[in-house]
Amino acid sequence: MDKTKPLHHLRYGSVEGSIWENLTQGGGAFYNVTFAKHYKDGDEWKTSQSFGMGDLLELTKVADHAHTWIARLQERARENSRTEQTQERRSVPRQEQGRGYSDRVGRQEQRRGRG
Question: Is residue 68 included in any domain, yes or no?
């Protein structure tokens, strides 16, 4: 069985955040974050999803860093999408592209008898 792995891990003190990517049917993605606290009970390391008052500052810092990491990832995806769209437009011959601003101005000038 192939287990899905987190896209990224963040850790601050005993608190860890794992960022998960979820792909949509339309080819997009959305992200979720899970949080865990690691602690030692005797000689054994344990994990909990319960946070006491003393853990909240660390939890907040991990959540803030997770938010920033996801926001940057989404911005890069938007930039890549814009770049791909620009490249696609450049590869289409001019006569196949939609009429631009100068074409509209030219038609207006012709209607006014100036062109």
Answer: yes
